[in-house]
Amino acid sequence: MFLLSSFCLKAQFTQQWVNNFCCFDSLQPHTFSYPLGKYVQQDTLTLSFYEDDLQRFRKVDLNTGNDIQNITLTNDTVQSPFYYGGGTIHVANHYITSLIKYNANSGVIKLFHNSMSENLTTDWSNEITVNNGTIAAPLSNLSATDFFTCMVSDSVRIYKFSVNGLFQWMTALPVLSTNSNDKPTLFLNSLDEVLMYVRNADPTLTNYSSRLIKVDGSSGAVLADTIYSHTMGTSHIVFQDFDTLKIAFIDAVGHFVSVASVDMLTMTETKNFTSNVSCFDELEKFAVDQQTNQYYIKSNSFFLGFTVQDVSLFNISLVPESQGQYDFGDIAFNQQYAFLSYSFFNTANNPVNNDILVLKIDKFNGAVIGSTSYNDSRNTDENYLQHYLDTASYYVIFANNFDNISILQEETQIGIIKYNLVTQNIQELQNNESVLLLPNPVQNKVSVQFHTENIPVSYSVCNILGVVMKKDAITQNSVLDLSMLKEGVYSIVIEFQNKSTICKRFVKL
Prior knowledge:
Helix content: under 10%
Low-confidence stretches: 1-11, 137-142, 424-432
Structural class: mainly beta
Number of strands: 38
Shape: globular
Distance between the termini: 21 Å
Number of helices: 0
Largest sheet: 7 strands, antiparallel
CATH topology of the largest domain: Methylamine Dehydrogenase, Chain H
Strand order of the largest sheet: 14-15-16-17-18-19-20
CATH architecture of the largest domain: 7 Propeller
Radius of gyration: 25 Å
C-alpha cells in the first residue's frame, strides 16, 4: 500500500556561499572540465578535476568558500593530451589518480596515473599505452589504489597497477553492447577479490540482465563470470553493501521496480522483491539506509521508499529531471531525512533554463521538509553532480557545459555550493487527519473538511519548490478552486487562529 503522505515545508536551506571556477566566463577555448574526486578533512575540501590537457587540485575553505591552494599538473608539453574518464581517491595521506589520456597528434591512448601528497606535491607518475583497440565510452572511476576499469572496443577490461603506479596485469572480457548505461563498475570484497559489475545485453540489445565477473586480485585470473537471469529488465543500478551487491532494476514484465542481492563471496543471487510500482523512466539512485535497513530508489521523476519486506513506505512525484548524461552521487541520509540533488528544467525562469533542485525528505513517510533551487547561469544540463552532508551543512558539487558562441567553443563551469540547514519556527498539529481534502487527486475543485475545534483563517498552496501559488482566507468546510494549477504535486498549508499550522499534500490532475 502506498502512502501519499502529508507534508509541511518546515525547514529550508540557507545558501552560505558558492565557489565557481573552471572556464567560468573565460575567453580561452576549452572543451571540457570534469571533477574526479573529493576529500573532506576537518574544514577543508580537496577537489581533483581535469581541464582538457591539465589535471588540477583545488583546496577550499568550507567555512568561507575561499580557495586555500591550487595546483596544476601536466605531464606532456610536446603532445598536448586530452583527458577523459577516471577518478581520484584519498588513501593513507595521498591522492591517487587514474585517467584516460589521448594524444591527439599521435592518436595514442594511455592510462595515466599519479600520486599527490597531502600538501599536493607529486610522489610519482606513470602511464601505459592501451593496445588492441580504442577506448569507448562509458568509463568507470578508479575503485581502489591499484585497479581501473574501462571499455575498449567490444571488451570490458580490468587493469591492475602497483601502489607506485606500475602496470601488473590486465584482464579483458567480451561484451555485446557499449550502451551508455552499461558503465562497468569495480568493487572489492573482504577477500581482496575484484568484482566487476556490468549490464549484459541479449543479442537484440533490447533486454538486459546483471553480469558479475570475479577476478583474483593478485593474478588477474577470472574466478567466476555469472549472468543473473532473474534481473532481466532495464535501467539497472547497483551499489555495494558490505559483501553484498544490491541491484535495483525495472522488471521486463510489467515494468515493476525490483530489487535483487548478490553475495560477493559465493556469487549467489537472492531476489529481494518485485514491487507493484510500475516505472517507465530511468532509475537514477539506489541506496539502503544502514540505520533503518530501508530501501530508497530515485527515478527520473519519482522517489520511492520500501522496507526489506517490500512494504511501500511512500511513492512521491518529483519535478522531472532534465534529460542528459549525469553522474549523480548516492542518496544522502541523516537520522531523520534523505537528501536529493539533481538537475531540472525550470519553467519558472525567464528565459527557462536548467537549474539544480535540492530536496530534504522525511525518510519514513516521504514528506518534503525543505527545498531550494540554484540557478547555475549556464542554462545547460549538469554533466556531473555530487553532494555530501555533515552535521549542520549540505554541499553540492556540479559541472555543466556552455556553448560560447563568441569563440565557437564549448566550455565548462565547475561549482561548489554550501547550504546551512536551518529549521524554521512553524508549529504543526500532531493529528494531520483533523483536516481532510476530498477528492485527492484533485481535478479542479477540492473540499477542505475540518474535524478540529481550532478556527481556520487562511491557506497557502505551494509547489514542490516551496513557491506559493495561491493564498487566501478560508472558513470551515470550504471548497477551493484549484483549476489554475498545472498538473503536479502540491501542499496546502492551513493556518489557524492559535497560529498552529497543518500541512496537507495533494496531486493536481
